[in-house]
Design goal:
The complex is a heterodimer of chains A (about 120) and B (about 750). Chain A is of the alpha/beta class and about 120 residues long. Chain A has helices at about 10-25, 35-45, 60-70, 90-95, 110-120, and strands at about 5-10, 30, 50-55, 80-85, 100-105. Chain B has about 750 residues and is of the alpha+beta class. In chain B, the strands form five sheets. Chain B has a five-stranded antiparallel sheet. Classes of the chains: A alpha/beta (about 120), B alpha+beta (about 750). The interface of A and B includes residues 11 and 108 of A.
Chain lengths: ~120, ~750
């Protein structure tokens, strides 16, 4: 069965690339354009992995992450946070809130793919 | 008993003594004579009676004459002498008693005169000594005051209670910026005797003091504390605090350590020097901080702001590397890259423009008037190179931001090479503003050199006779974030080097008003405040001479506040430790929001035009209230002015509930028999010359001078404290006339 990935980011220019990349890797991809939509999609589709941008309108990536982790029925959802801020304090915060991995923009797509693979258990 | 009464008594006694025994004898003879023999007795005596009476009257007259003469010489004469002696005691020290009258009195006068001589000699000696001591103290004070006023840093000195006892003019300017009521110019915050806690949080200062005292206890050589704080007006201040230590000799003096308050107690036991106050050095870093934050903002925009965009580009670029990409997707990824890169270029340009100032090199440049810089260059070129140097157009309004020393070196160096290698016999300087930069031109007549030569001049270390530096002209130019090039003026057959220099915003010249008021130097210090202490008794029992006063006057549209007359001007000045602080005054016109009767302008000289655009009373009263905080109010005919203020209490929410003294009532206390207690009349009586009357501030200053003259006169009447003064004033006739 195909693994499901949700891409939550409000920047279309990165969504295009991520979508192409993930589909090419053989995952089933859904997209959310802001924080609230992301929470909704997560509940609906129960993805295996969320690529979650921190800076989103309506609800930040941190909030989304916290909400997902507060819901035991969503415990199986992995979260990889993507951020455009380079401060290590944000990395610590993301990981403390329950993210499984963290990548700082700009990143190498190869690395991203590898991390996604690891998170989804090969 | 008065001398006259005693004289009358003496005469009566004389009459009784001269006639008494005679009459008594006659009576006894009359009584002892038998009834029948009495007519005979009368018959015998009657013819001699007139002679006897005549003799008696004669004797009496002679007796009275003798008494009168004695009285004149010994009583009146002595009384006169006493008056003269009093004169010698007080008003006229040089006066001497004229030896007059009987020898005893003359001897007395002689002795008294000799005593007076002796006293005068002693007094003159003491005075001379005091004068000398005073002079040297005054000299030192003046030296200190001069030093302080020249400092470009603002300095405020306070005693342990936070009372300001010294500040310099720089501090004054700075507090002007801190004031929430700029009309008053910060004098409601900074003034002798005012509390520094009006500006800084009390606990903040206490904490800094504690830090200093800890350091002192540890024996630190430089016990200082620093803090940064925001003021109520939102300005950011960096404050450096240093202690004022009592002179070592004072340590043994128990009085000093008691006076210096609880914070210092206990320290001297450990052999430490006692802190009696503190010095604050203030720096307004609001603007500095803004520049810093802008710089940070820019850095942030340049780094963090580009991460997302870079991520988009990088991801898209990496996608393009997949060989199996379809054409439409390839086109979309290229589109992403194009869009993002364009957006990034735009952002970069925007940032570069917006933060151009912050990007400048950080070599510390000083702001100076262009004229001064050019004049200095001219002098230097002529003196160092013996090369005539003339000035062409110089824009006198241009301020530049330069490292003047290195810039002068560079210009002189260029001129020296011109003179050495191209035999230039005269150079000229020109300065003008051009947008955000200034053009400084070094002009010469004749040929221009090749670009290579210019290049080598720019890049070789500057060498002048007796002076060499590793710096190059290029370094100097870069220090100023400027440029330099060679330009030709073909028509006039000359050439010039043009240097681009950063412009500075013109600096306000030192506030002229600070120097206009007052005599030689504004009253910026009062060291007597060191002796002050807050624990002082209630205001009522404090001596009048120790209180701080706000002496004020108002000009109004008319005389009836209850019928809508309004204040149009408030003027006030301060008295501290018996001194008038002219430089700390308050003067503000007020828009009365009602028409002004034209004839009233003849009294106060204020016209409607002058009042247009002035603040309303609702803005002015709170500022005046702050100015008058913690002081006793003084006004001439205070009831009138207070009535205007009180009627505004409800609408402005400002209450003037401090004690009030009225110079009119006090004058009535001092001179109850005088007819007029108008301000002019009092001033004249007290020997004051009046200038600048009938402006609110002018009148306030006259009132203050009058009040100061009154203080010793009140003391003579046994009126020493605020309570005494108020009670005495209440008893006068004038106090019963109410508005």
């Amino acid at each position: 069965m195909k693994k499901k990935i949700l891409i939550a980011d409000d920047e279309q220019n990165i969504v295009i690339s991520l979508e192409f990349l993930m589909k090419r890797e053989g995952y089933e991809v859904t997209i959310a354009n802001d924080g609230e939509e992301a929470v909704q999609r997560i509940r609906e589709t129960r993805p295996d992995l969320v690529l979650l941008d921190v800076m989103m309108p309506r609800k930040s990536g941190f909030d989304v992450c916290q909400e997902v982790r507060a819901d035991p029925s969503l415990a199986s959802v992995r979260i990889m946070m993507l951020t455009a801020k380079g401060r290590d304090t944000e990395v610590s915060k993301g990981l403390a809130l329950g993210a499984d991995a963290y990548m700082t923009k700009p990143f190498s797509t190869k690395e991203l793919v590898e991390k996604v693979r690891t998170l989804l258990g090969g | 008993m008065s001398a006259r009464a005693r004289f009358v008594l003496a005469v009566v006694v004389l009459v009784v003594l001269m006639t008494g025994p005679f009459l008594l004898t006659a009576l006894l003879v009359w009584v002892e004579t038998p009834e029948g023999a009495r007519p005979r007795l009368v018959e015998l005596i009657a013819p001699h009676l007139s002679l006897g009476a005549l003799l008696t009257v004669f004797g009496l007259a002679a007796g009275v004459g003798v008494i009168r003469a004695l009285f004149r010489q010994y009583v009146r004469g002595l009384l006169r002498m006493v008056e003269n002696l009093r004169l010698m005691l007080g008003a006229n020290r040089g006066f001497r008693v004229e030896p007059d009258g009987p020898p005893e009195v003359r001897d007395l006068a002689q002795a008294v005169n000799e005593l007076a001589e002796q006293r005068d000699a002693l007094l003159t000696d003491v005075e001379a000594q005091i004068g000398r001591a005073k002079e040297s103290v005054e000299q030192e004070k003046n030296r200190l005051a001069a030093l302080m006023s020249e400092l470009t840093q603002s300095v405020v000195v306070c005693n342990l209670d936070g009372r300001i006892l010294l500040y310099n003019s720089r501090a004054r300017q700075q507090f002007r910026a801190l004031s929430e009521a700029p009309a008053v110019g910060g004098s409601e915050l900074l003034g002798l005797g005012r509390s520094i806690y009006g500006v800084f949080d009390r606990s903040l200062v206490a904490h800094a003091l504690e830090t200093i005292q800890q350091r002192l206890r540890r024996g630190a050589a430089q016990a200082q504390a620093n803090f940064v704080t925001t003021t109520r007006a939102g300005q950011l201040l960096r404050v450096q605090m240093a202690p004022v230590l009592a002179a070592p000799a004072d340590e043994d003096d128990p009085a000093t350590s008691v006076q210096s308050g609880p914070a210092a107690s206990g320290d001297d036991a450990a052999g430490q020097r006692v802190v009696t106050g503190f010095i604050l050095m203030l720096e307004n870093i609001t603007r500095h901080f803004e520049t810093e934050s802008r710089r940070d903002q820019m850095l942030h925009d340049l780094t963090e702001g580009n991460r997302a965009a870079l991520a988009n580009v990088r991801a898209a670029a990496e996608m393009l590397e997949y060989p199996d990409l379809q054409d439409d997707l390839r086109e979309r990824f290229s589109g992403v890259i194009r869009d993002e890169v364009q957006a990034m270029s735009r952002r970069l340009n925007d940032i570069a423009t917006e933060f151009a100032d912050s990007l400048k090199a950080r070599w510390p440049l000083e702001e100076m008037l262009g004229v001064d810089l050019v004049a200095a260059m001219q002098r230097r070129i002529e003196a160092r190179l013996q090369l005539p140097c003339k000035l062409e157009e110089i824009d006198e309004s241009v301020w530049v931001k330069v490292d003047s020393f290195s810039l002068m070196q560079a210009i002189t160096y260029l001129a020296s090479r011109l003179s050495d290698e191209f035999e230039v016999r005269e150079v000229r300087l020109r300065l003008c503003g051009a947008g955000r930069r200034a053009h400084l031109d070094l002009i010469w007549s004749g040929q221009a050199m090749s670009t290579e030569t210019v290049m080598s001049w720019e890049l070789e270390p500057m060498r002048l006779e007796g002076e060499s530096t590793p710096l190059t002209v290029r370094d100097v130019i870069e220090r100023h974030d400027g440029e330099m090039w060679l330009e030709r003026e073909k028509v006039r057959h000359r050439a010039f080097f043009r240097l681009l220099l950063p412009l500075a915003t013109p600096q306000a010249e030192v506030e002229p008003e600070v120097f206009l008021r007052g005599e030689s130097r504004p009253e910026y210090y009062d060291f007597d405040l060191f002796k002050w202490s807050e624990q002082a008794h209630a205001l009522d029992d404090r001596p009048l001479s120790e209180l701080v006063y706000t002496v004020f006057d108002t000009e109004t549209t008319g005389l009836n506040p209850s019928q809508g007359d309004e204040i149009i001007q408030i003027g006030a000045t301060r008295i501290l430790n018996g001194k008038l602080l002219r430089s700390e005054s308050f003067e503000q016109l007020v828009d009365p929001a009602r028409p002004l009767a034209p004839e009233s302008a003849e009294i106060h000289g204020i016209t409607e035009v002058m009042l247009r655009g002035q603040p309303r009373i609702g803005e002015v009263l709170p500022a005046f209230h702050a100015f008058a905080a913690d002081t006793v109010l003084v006004a001439h005919n205070a009831a009138f002015d207070m009535r205007f203020l009180q009627l505004k209490e409800a609408s402005t929410g400002v209450r003037f509930d401090q004690p009030v003294l009225d110079t009119l009532l006090l004058s009535a206390v001092i001179h109850p028999n005088q007819e007029s207690h108008r301000l002019e009349a009092i001033a004249e009586r007290l020997g004051l010359t009046i200038i600048g009357r009938h402006t609110a501030l002018g009148d306030a200053i006259v009132t203050a001078e009058v009040f100061l003259k009154m203080l010793p006169l009140l003391a003579e009447k046994g009126i020493h404290t605020l309570r005494d003064a108020r009670e005495a004033a209440e008893k006068t006739y004038y106090a019963r006339v109410k508005y």
